[in-house]
Write a structure and sequence with these properties.
The protein is α+β, with helices and mostly antiparallel strands. The chain has 25 helices and 29 strands.
Length: about 775
């Protein structure tokens, strides 16, 4: 590790490839043949997370591309070598052929031209076939004739990309995940310094394989003028019963611009239909348009605005600064901004009235804006020395766990590779007979699956421990110090006020709302969050707020009485379900009642409850039946919520925040079931989010009115955190608890717990 100008810098690379999709991984594998130090920077947490895995998986013959084009040439060559490559790297490829189906004279002429074009490109084994031959090849297809490409095939795009990446890694290529590139600077010695979320990298050469983001990377490199046009579409997946009727991909006769919606078999025996295609030029993730003012002006005002790129040019080092432009070039843009903002305000203001959410907007969301701005500005202090010690401790433990895993497995393998983990567990150790597989044929080794198999073999627990520790190390322990602002010496997260569907706040850059607290390792990270000098860390959180909201919304008498009595709600629930005195409730009974309490408001099934509690389905059913017998109005509330959603298409929180559920009447039972669970939970979770927003605004107002030096620094779902001077401790606690508990009057009282300490862990 190099340290240049106070910035942690990885050692020098010969080549850094930006993007770990199929192109980036293929490039990495090819370059690994040479004596070079090669790295891959991937913004996601695994390869093949974007467009590489979102396609039909068809290996084309090369006939559809312009004569003499490089695309056509590489397509033909790639088709020829795909069979040998599949054997070498062990991924699934089937040379099944492909048909382009036609019905009209015009279609016939187009297919003849396509064959000629294909021959000019070097494609072979292309022929026109009649209706009889077509039906012999593909029984389910209706058409008068077709072009048959013998050499076309299908591939598993995930398996292919993973195979390339693993081979590259085996050859010495270093993959760095979660490393989104934010800046690239060319140095005087013609090397490049690349800035990422996980530190800086230095390299002699940069290869841009960033997919939809390659235009952005190109701008960072100073190579401007490239414009990326994306295509956004959908696929329908049919099950394996359809597979035998479709042994090869079926395409319509192509147009000049679009290959059309096609039906394709997959390597695992399914069938996919699609895609439709919307061309997009402005996208953030997977081709979704940004909802900026230009977009809103077009949608609500039917007006095309002046885009800023027209004035200062595209992003990159050659982009101009607005302050450098003469006023006569800027005034129209500036005036338009003001004008459009006012016009949109008038339109959206009426929309607020129409939707009945004026109170939500003006009384809850708008007062919260200055609170969040203040919190972001305050930032939070991090004890870097504590994190350094934790990092050293975790690294040693990882090495020890790694050795234990290899001993238990009887061989070394890449623990970070789901594919290799699956092969070890299910092919070599054979811990179960019928292991679950993905649609690509790879064993499923997700955390959920491995947790369910933990008792089958000692190595599984060790793999889970390794993964958890590795994630903590990479996501928080080593990453957080790099995110400290050098001027303020604090981390300044961004609180997203209007991102989640439920109304909950979220946090990004970095996400400080997802730090685990249940295990000891996760708690180590909270220990590093500290208050300002001369201050103490204060934490306050709502006690069982979602259950209290359920009691309020359902108006269930038994649940309300349980809360009003002051009893532990889980013990009280257990006592009623098992029909015993609350004094006789065992810890196991309480645990099961607690699981039911929280699980049922999230629409948990009998199977899900059985899995979660590690009991048989009979006991789980008895528990759920007992629960609804105890709280009958909860069941009525759940049924009513689903019915309301079906009738009006949305549900509401107690402050009338709407959650739209377009799939509530879907014919697909799985999709509909998901919407039904949201219909039950969204009003509860959304109401909890609204209540803590009210509390935050009122706490902030009282801090300001009394000119307190205490600072609100973090919000994590139902929890608020503060840095408080010693002299203000008693008063701050009084204010916070008061405002949290009287943020909204319900049938049952809101309760807040609190704690103090020298860090976040001690306080909570």
């Amino acid at each position: 590790m190099l340290n240049i100008g106070g910035v942690k810098m990885k050692e020098m690379y010969d080549v850094l490839i930006i993007g770990g999709g199929v192109v980036g991984s293929a490039m990495a594998r090819e370059l690994s043949r040479y004596r070079l130090k090669i790295g891959v920077l991937e913004k996601n947490l695994d390869v093949c997370n974007e467009t590489s895995g979102r396609n039909s998986g068809v290996v084309h013959g090369g006939f559809a591309y312009d004569r003499g084009s490089l695309k056509a040439k590489l397509c033909v060559e790639g088709n020829k070598m795909m069979g040998d490559l599949a054997k070498e790297l062990d991924f699934h490829f089937i040379r099944c052929g492909k048909v382009l189906v036609g019905n009209t004279d015009e279609d016939m002429e187009t297919l003849k031209r396509t064959i000629e074009q294909g021959k000019d490109n070097g494609a072979t084994n292309l022929e026109l076939i009649d209706e009889k031959r077509l039906h012999e090849l593909v029984p389910a297809v209706v058409g008068k004739f077709a072009m048959f490409s013998h050499n076309s095939g299908i591939v598993d795009p995930f398996g292919y990309t993973i195979a390339l990446a693993e081979n590259a890694h085996e050859n010495g290529v270093e993959y760095h995940f979660g490393c989104e590139v934010t800046a690239i600077q060319r140095q005087e010695d013609d090397t490049y310094e690349i800035t990422t979320a996980k530190g800086n990298f230095k390299t002699r050469w940069v290869v841009n394989c960033a997919g939809l983001g390659c235009g952005k990377i190109s701008d960072m490199l100073g190579i401007t003028g490239y414009r990326i046009i994306g295509s956004k579409g959908d696929y329908i997946i049919l099950d394996k019963r359809t597979g035998p009727l479709l042994p090869m991909p079926v395409y319509p006769v192509p147009s000049k611009t679009y290959m059309g919606i096609h039906v394709t078999n997959t390597t695992d025996g399914n069938v996919i239909i699609g895609p439709n295609a919307d061309m997009v030029t402005d996208f953030t993730y997977y081709g979704v348009p940004q909802k900026n003012m230009d977009y809103l002006a077009e949608i609500y005002l039917h007006y095309q605005t002046i885009h800023i790129d027209e004035l200062i040019g595209p992003k990159g080092k050659n982009q101009k600064n607005m302050r450098d432009l003469p006023p006569e070039e800027v005034y129209k843009y500036a005036c338009e901004d003001a004008d459009i903002t006012l016009k949109l305000k008038n339109v959206l203001e009426e929309e607020l009235k129409k939707q009945g959410v004026e109170h939500l907007f003006y009384e809850i969301e708008m007062p919260l804006v200055r609170v969040l701005a203040n919190m972001e500005s305050n930032g939070v202090r991090i004890d870097t020395e504590a994190l350094k010690q934790t990092s050293e401790h975790f690294t040693v433990r990882l090495q020890e766990i790694e050795k234990e895993i290899y001993e238990l497995a009887g061989e070394t393998f890449n623990i970070a590779s789901p594919k290799q983990v699956g092969e070890i567990l299910f092919d070599k150790l054979k811990i179960i007979d019928k292991a679950k597989k993905t649609k690509t044929g790879q064993y499923v080794t997700s955390e959920e699956v491995l947790e369910s198999l933990r008792n089958k073999h000692e190595v599984i627990g060790k793999i889970l421990e390794y993964r958890g520790l590795k994630k903590l190390l990479g996501t928080y322990v080593d990453a957080l110090p790099l995110l400290i602002n050098p001027r303020t010496r604090r981390i300044h997260t961004s609180f997203n006020q209007a991102v989640t569907a439920t109304g909950r706040l979220s946090s990004s850059s970095p996400n400080l709302q997802n730090i685990p607290i249940r295990d000891e390792d996760g708690k180590e990270i909270r220990k590093a969050f500290i208050p300002d000098d001369g201050c103490e860390f204060f934490s306050a959180d709502y006690s069982q707020i979602e259950l209290r909201i359920m009691a309020h919304l359902s108006e269930d008498k038994n649940m309300i009485d349980a809360f009003l009595s002051g009893y532990d709600i889980h013990a009280a629930t257990a006592a009623k379900i098992y029909k015993i005195d609350i004094k006789d409730v065992t810890s196991d009974m309480r645990r099961k009642a607690k699981t039911a309490n929280f699980g049922i408001i999230y629409g948990i099934s009998i199977f899900g409850l059985a899995e979660r509690m590690n009991v048989d389905r009979k006991e789980a059913k008895e528990l759920i039946d007992g629960y609804f017998e105890t709280y009958p109005q909860v069941r009525e509330y759940m049924d009513k919520s689903i019915q309301v959603a079906r009738e009006q298409g949305y549900v509401e929180t107690i402050f009338h925040r709407k959650r739209f559920l377009p799939d509530i009447n879907s014919r697909n039972a799985t999709v509909r079931g998901y919407a039904e669970r949201n219909a039950i939970n969204a009003p509860i979770q959304g109401s909890a989010a609204d209540i803590i927003k009210v509390a935050m605004a009122r706490i902030y107002e009282r801090f300001q009115s009394y000119k307190l030096k205490a600072k609100m620094i973090l919000q994590v779902h139902d929890e608020l955190n503060f840095s408080v001077p010693e002299a203000e401790k008693e008063f701050v606690q009084q204010i916070v608890i008061e405002e949290m508990e009287r943020a909204y009057r319900m049938h049952v009282p809101l309760r807040a717990d609190c704690g103090w300490g020298k860090n976040w862990l001690k306080a909570h």
